[in-house]
Each structure stands twice: as structure tokens, then as C-alpha cells.
Amino acid sequence: MIIDYLVLSIILFCLGIVGVISRRNVFTVFMAIELMLNAANLAFIALSRLHESMDGQVLAMLVMAVAAAEAALALAVVILLHKHTGKLDTNVFSLLKG
Amino acid sequence: MIAQWLFFGFATLAVLGALGLVLFRHPMNGAMCFIVTLISLAGLYALLSASLLFALQLIVYAGAIMSLILFIIMFLNIQITDLPEEKGRWTFFFGGIVLIAPIGLFLLKIVKTLPESSTTIIGDNFGGVKKVGMVLFRDWLLPFEIVSILLLVALVGAVVLAGKKEMAS
After folding, report:
1. Cα separation of B133 and B150, whole Å?
2. Is this prediction's pTM over 0.95?
3. Which end of chain A is more exposed for a tag (fewer CB within 10 A), N or C?
4. Which CATH topology does B2-127 take?
5. What pLDDT, on a 0 to 100 scale, did the predictor assign at position A96?
6. Which residue of A has its CA nearest to B96?
7. Which of B 143-162 lie inside 8 A of A, CB atoms?
């Protein structure tokens, strides 16, 4: 039974990676990263149920806090880039290429 | 038995929502699908008897973070013509699946070696506020404080980034 939860978490994580590498929309890429964080959370909580200890759930809470901080910063960056170029294409955002 | 059916229902909804997120062209549709995934993940947490995480997933993730993302998507007022032209989307999608499949199968093989255990709901307040809080403030105090500093830094950074620039010159 626990294995089913872990398999689901692997499927969600792989879908998140596929979303990151196959899409060019900034928002979709960002939400695919959030999907990967959620898959990791599911694995943490399933393993916490397996060992009947609380540490996995505490780690999942910390991951949620990190995701909230990431959302705030990433969305501010997206607004700035949209103001700057008027586009939402990740291929346009190559300012660091030199 | 009913937990089994609930698990399959929530798992199907979660995978369908993730597929919708990856495949829909407009980010608004993708965000709506992603909310379905988040809510069904909350149901799975409840099945794993993590009651505090169930509430936090609904309030913080599906409530706060996703409404922030939806607000920004609506704020930018994205028309269908503003979206990037993704001609090779399907090619990249199937190519990505081919690329990721070996890693996924490897992880599956690792998971299969774990011991089998049932997921019946544990009583005794497992996953409740008191037990999680005890572990959080006793064993994980330092990471907790570091996360609070991280949130403060993200707050200041977001204000600096999105705020109005007032140059001196």
C-alpha cells in the first residue's frame, strides 16, 4: 500500500520534469517545479507513515515554507521580465548568456 | 476497502491534473488543473493520517500559493497571442518521456525493495498539531529558524524586485 503512494509520487515527479523540459511558458514551467515539490512532499509523508514517525511530516512543512518563498520571489522576477520584454517565453529570457 | 477506492480516485485525479498542467497551452487552464492535483494530494495526505499536513496543503498550497499565481496570471492579462509559440511541444513531450523513463524505472525498482505495510488510519493523534509541533520545536528547531530567515529574505527580495525604482539621478 505504501508502495502505491511512492509510485504515484514518482509518476508526478517525472511529469514535473517533463513539463519543465517540454514547455516554454514561464508560468507552466514554474508550476511544474511546484508539482515536483509536491511529489517530494507526498514521498516524505508516505515514508513518515511507513516508519510511524513525525520527521517526514515536519520536513514536508519546511518544504511548503520554501515553496511559498520561492513563489513570492519567482513571481516578482516574472513580473519584472514581463515588463522588460513583454513576453512570457523562456527562450527570450537569456540575459545571463553573456 | 473504501480507503483503497479513495486512493485510486485521488491518484487518478492527481495524475490527470498534472497531465493537464503539462499539456494545456494557456497557463490559466494549467493552473486550474494544478489546483485539482493539489486538492487530491491533500486527500492522499488525509489517507496517510497526516491531518495537520492535510489542512496545511489546503490552506497554504491550494489557498495561498495558487491564488497568488492565479492573481499574477490574471494581473498580466495574458492573451492567446502573447503566449510563446510552442511548435515542437509534442515532440518535446514524448522526447522528455523517453528521456525520463529510465530514471523513473530505476526509482520504481528502488521503491519495490521497501517492506510492505498497511496504511490504515492510525489513531492516537498521529499527525495532529501536538505531535508534529513537539517534533518540530524539539528536533527541528534550527531548520525552523533558518526557514523563518529565508521567508524574511524572500519578503525583502520581492519588495525590492517588484517595487517602484526611484533612482536618485
Report:
1. 20
2. no
3. C
4. Four Helix Bundle (Hemerythrin (Met), subunit A) (1.20.120)
5. 76
6. A18
7. 143-144, 147, 150-151, 153-155, 157-158, 161-162
